[in-house]
Amino acid sequence: MGLERIVSLAPGRTCLFGDHQDYLKLPVIACAISRYITLTAVRNDSQKLIISKPDINEIRVIDLSEPILKIEKGDHLLTAIKIAEQYKCIPDKGYDIHISGNIAINAGTSSSSAVVVAWIKFLLTAFGCNQKITKEFVSKLAYQTEVEYHNSPGGKMDQYSIGLGNIMYLETDAKANYVTFDKPLKGLIVAESGVPKQTTGVLGELKEKALLAVHKVKEKISSFELKEVNKDELPSYLNYVSDDLKVFLSAAVLNHDITQRALKEFQKETWSVAAIGALMTEHHEILKNYLNLTVPKIDAMINTAISAGALGAKIVGSGRGGSIVVLANEGEEDKIIDSLLKAGAKDAYKVQVDPGARIVEPKSIQS
Fold it and tell me: How far is 108 from 316, CA to CA, in rounded Å?
């Protein structure tokens, strides 16, 4: 028979620490946030998945009676079907599917990954599979869909943050070990610049240079491991790389150090939001001054937030556009939001830490 109606919900995410670290297999600290992609699927009498995406004015039909012969790069819906087939998830019934949400598009809050995660949860719920459907399994399939299948740049942060939920410290190596912190971080604000981010180009460019810098050190010291470098040891390693690569090695080491200090704070029984905010701003300074990831509008928004009393603020994601995340004292969010909007932010709003992607209907299925 199959389920008549399925509602799959996936949150956006923001990165608190570790931007431009996951493609170096270095850890990140991210959190799922209370902005959502909602996928609603209703059974139809055809063998077609009829997909409506009103947010981008798109309608797509996937005919399940036709074999998948070729998948264009970036076609994550078809890619996810192909990947899920490996786990005996075989779509064999038609659905009318509506996908929409309030996660800003191309703003660094992972709207595209949220669509992929919501889609995968729908596929597994509607058509089953030969694995236990855990948050980790869904996150892994989303990563394979977005990154591995087409050999795209990027790491695991987006898919695992959205799939697992809460605040998450994620080791981005092959094991993908993680710790989640199931506590609220009050005072979070997301502000959109309105400047489209340049994901693929920026990621590809910076990833290539950072990996080249690491390679140059490894040529001289075969045992070199980036994640084991103490920031006090950085000057000695800089001798092994050319001047044009020094800044990329420095950024990797310094940002890793900031993430480790942030982890220690999150591991405490009581968090110091002031300490977390200060580390966010310190991280932003590296992204701005070493990796050149900001644009004037982002700089103005960060400065405005800090001047209005924010505890910390940083650019999010691939950079050169997109959004910022701000940490404020609880109760002061509205004042800072007003300042950001006056400074030209396209939008700014409070967010809460979200528990992660889930099936809302039928309620008996909470995978």
Answer: 6
- Predicted structure pTM score: 0.89
pLDDT digits (tens, 9 = 90+) for 169-202: 999 887 778 999 988 899 999 999 988 876 566 7
Does domain 188-350 match CATH 3.90.400.10? no
In which region does residue 350 sit, left (phi positive, over 0), alpha (psi from -120 to 50) or beta (all else)? beta
CATH topology of domain 5-182+354-361: Ribosomal Protein S5; domain 2 (3.30.230)
pLDDT in tens, 202-228: 777 888 899 999 999 999 999 999 999
Q: Are 123 and 117 in contact (CB under 8 A)?
A: no
CB 363 within 8 A of CB 125: no
**Alpha helices (H) along the chain:** 76-85, 111-127, 135-143, 157-164, 199-220, 234-238, 243-266, 273-289, 296-307, 333-342
Helix (H, G, I), strand (E, B) or coil at 157: helix
Q: For the chain, which residues make up each domain, given as ranges?
A: 5-182+354-361, 188-350
